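Late entry, evening session. Most of the bench is empty. Finally got around to the prediction I had been postponing all week. Sequence below, unchanged from the version circulated by S.P.
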Amino acid sequence: MTRLTAKRVLKFIALVPAIAIASFTLFYFRAPLTVSYAPTMEVFSTVYLYPIEEMEIDITLDSGDETDCWYGVAIPGGTAAELEYQKSGGVRSIYSYCVRGEETEDFLRKNLTKAGCTSDETETFIQRWLPYMFYNPYNRISLLTADYEKATSLAVTPAPDSVLRLLVFWEGSWEYASSYGYQIFKSFPRAGFTAVELAAGRWVEDDPRVKSPWAAEPM
């Protein structure tokens, strides 16, 4: 081996630790940045339509990930349009309540009424969704209005005079978690053609990366 070749070998050996450290740093600090995951929320929305007179109405609900549409004839006495969609990452809220399963019915009835829902709208929601919530030791519940409006869009044609949008998001829990925030709902006067969206949201049940308390049966 010549003296020149020997020097090159020694230089390469000296560089091996630096190469290993650089490779580790690249993997350790860059690899996690390429992995992004947010659980998916599924939303079941009921839009109550109260036109002044019977009319044809078109509804488009867009979550940014999915769009659902409804077209039909609404009557002054009230017509319910059913839509559903999914949204990656859900909707953030600064308010959250932790409610015992057996106290959830009273909580929903009290707060949906405060938010501006009628007794019929409230009772329909409770009858449909309470069976999924009642048997949970606790329910972590968020009632979203302005945050929900920012995260999703609702287009009703012809445009209503008064619109209320409310998303009730919940997840079951085995343990109590502190509630945070004190929510005050704005009054909702119903004037003219009124549209009320009352939606229920929860994490997608069959997503293996989310521990869903209702994957098989209500907890």
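Two things to note before I forget:
The chain has a mean pLDDT of 80.
The chain has two domains: 3-34, 40-203.
Will write this up properly tomorrow.
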